[in-house]
Amino acid sequence: MDIVTSHDVVMRARALVLHDLESTGCADPATVSALESALADRGWWLEQWAEGRDFVVGLVAQDVQDALLQTNGRWPLCRVCDHLEPHSLYIHPDLGGPDPTWVCEHAGISVAAVGEL
User: Fold this and answer.
1) For strand 89-92 and strand 109-113, is the pairing parallel, antiparallel, or unpaired?
2) pLDDT tens digit sequence for 97-113
3) DSSP reduced 3-state for 17
4) Strands of 109-113's sheet, edge to edge?
5) Is 114 in contact with 20 (CB distance < 8 Å)?
6) Treating both helix axes as pointing N-terminal to C-terminal, what angle do 29-48 and 56-71 enclose, rounded to 10 degrees?
7) What is the reported pTM?
8) What's the pLDDT tens digit per position in 68-88?
9) DSSP 3-state assignment of 110?
10) Which of 47, 53, 96, 111 is the most exposed place for a label (fewest CB within 10 A)?
11) 25, HSE (Cβ side, Cα atoms, 13 Å)
12) Is-contact 90 57, C-beta < 8 A?
């Protein structure tokens, strides 16, 4: 039987969100610190509600997105639709899981799974 620990879930979330930060050119010390802070918070949350493991990746991505909005601006920006004004992608479903996806709300299209930007 394959047992997935809380640590495994948090490390998977770290790898996927870090990939998206790197692929969008946003992985710097401040953004990685925001990611680490989100991981610590969601790790604690997961210890309180183990059934929430399917939501951790999306929630961490949303936490990082919220933290960056206050310091760096919108992240990640949509680069796939025809809307001219810069706009963010958002996590769907809203609660982050299961299978969280970056979605352009202007065009109503799924852009990529978290970790595949």
Assistant:
1) unpaired
2) 889 999 998 999 999 99
3) helix
4) 89-92, 101-104, 109-113
5) yes
6) 140
7) 0.93
8) 998 999 999 999 988 888 899
9) strand
10) 47
11) 2
12) no
